[in-house]
Amino acid sequence: MDYVIEMEKIRKEFPGIIANDDISINLKKGEILALLGENGAGKSTLMSILFGLYKPDGGHIKVNGEEVTIQNPNQAGELGIGMVHQHFKLVHNFTITENIILGNEPKGLKIDLSEARNKIISLSEKYNLNVDPDEKIENVSVGMQQRVEILKMLYRDAHILIFDEPTAVLTPQEIIELMKIMKNLIDEGKSIILITHKLKEIKQVADRCTVIRRGKVIDTVDVKNATLAEMAEKMVGRKVSFSVEKGEFNPGREILKVQNLNVINSRKILGVKDFSINVRAGEIVGLAGVDGNGQTELIEAITGIRKSESGIIDLNGNNLIDKTIKERIDAGISHIPEDRHKHGLVLDYSLEENMVLEKVDSSRFSTNGFLNKDEIRKHALKVIEDFDVRSGRGPLTVTRSMSGGNQQKAIVGREIFQDPDLLLAVQPTRGLDVGSIEYIHKRLIEQRDSGKAVLLVSLELDEILDLSDRIVVINNGELIGEVDAKDTNENQIGLMMAGVKEGEQS
Ligand SMILES: Nc1ncnc2c1ncn2[C@@H]1O[C@H](COP(=O)(O)OP(=O)(O)OP(=O)(O)O)[C@@H](O)[C@H]1O
Questions:
Q1: What's this model's pTM, rounded to 2 decimal places?
Q2: 20 to 30 A Cα–Cα from 203, which one of 97, 131, 219, 327?
Q3: Is there a domain that residue 383 lies in?
């Protein structure tokens, strides 16, 4: 068999956890192998070993049949292995060409920029990437930045490409494009390992799928013969429900009332324009929109992370527009942020410190300026248990070392445990496995049923349609329309997201 990669009995331990417990996987030439596993299953660790970022504690790696030791990413590169990480590693004020050649300059020689530029143009054409080599990274979309990362691998002649949850940051349109790009790469003789939680994507592009649970390989299946439900079940070890069950909603009083809000964005123009929205107790309002249409600025304005130019942000009858972030939290706002590293966690703090981040001065967690360590520990353990947050050292784990999905579950748990009146849930299930998504969805519905106001922002249309009672659509910073969730469908919302108002749809 023509294997380009064979990883045999790979073992990697971290304090308190065996991340890879004798894992064996192999990649055939010209195939897409999906790696599926719940949050913290050990997928990123395994790929970090293949890419030379971690040294395994045991096992062997063969590339094209030859046993190798991969000490660092440079060596991985020399063996033809490239990786697109979850968080891109690009310099924002450099051009695309400069970013691609960065770190690949020939030793002692001056780099020929125009030659590099030509090579980038021809690669971009060959793989249909549509990249402008002279544009600066700061001016291009997230989807385009990912293409630059792909080009970086191709420029270095990589033939084994690792994609770590590549679609988590993409819009639905960009996802369709990426799937096409992956097929092109395979047609040109590349081989791909794809880490993803999205079963539909696996079904769409992958040939085989290796399922990992708690550091061990459970099975490898031929994707064309496997159903989504079977793959999900192998992954979490139980049946998973794909549909969200929720009863009738009983909206109560108005909790959040935003009126005529204007907010300037980072490009110094109005990103939110004369925007009004309300959320009542006992309902989930879904805010739908193509990424970058003002939803980030709106949420930042409500939480106080970003200043508002004018308008009213009323919570329980009090205008919060001039209040600090902390005052807004104390007034009853919880926020599951879009960017968990920037606004969600202090990565060098322990999990327990992060679980009381916003409430550390409350009488429960401190007395006369001294921390109530027992209470903090008890609280952290409760969140960990309730939200099944998995990590090596429990409450003492440094959050930087946790898997992305487990970081996310910890934030969602912390915010729900704050018992807010208004829960702002922004991309609450980004990077989560299907089992965790099912759980978080149930908890959000529980919040609504217990009389909380929930504002859900998501790029996943399915999630908006499944969870929301009302759906509000934002386009170019403006309110395009509002519909009852039970009277609408993907098509109608899709058109509104593209800027077509309800009455203009025929
Ligand atoms: N540098 C590290 N130090 C300590 N523990 C680590 C480190 N890297 C990973 N771990 C632990 O190893 C386990 C596997 O993590 P890994 O990131 O490989 O999971 P994953 O399958 O990629 O999860 P996700 O889908 O959530 O990204 C987790 O429990 C994580 O906390």
A1: 0.80
A2: 131
A3: yes
